[in-house]
Sequence to fold (75 residues):
Amino acid sequence: MIKSISEMPGWRGIDLSGPDGNAFVLLGYADRFAKQLGYTHEDRKGLLDNMKSGSYENLIDMFDKEFGHFVTLWR
Fold:
């Protein structure tokens, strides 16, 4: 779930309104997290290709679905 920054006092995550919210930065995080979680090269490539295939909103929705259990996104 993408939250408002006002809901996250003192919490660290990814601020989509700052430089970490850049699509290329998010793709880098996604690749790194997937690698750390043991995704194969092919699975990582498929995930990143799918993230790049749509709009920015699609990218962050996919990121949140894949990694939202340990990374909080906020705007």
Q: What stands out?
A: The beta strands are 14-15, 73-74. The mean pLDDT is 89. Residues 5-74 form one domain. The two ends are 11 Å apart (CA to CA).
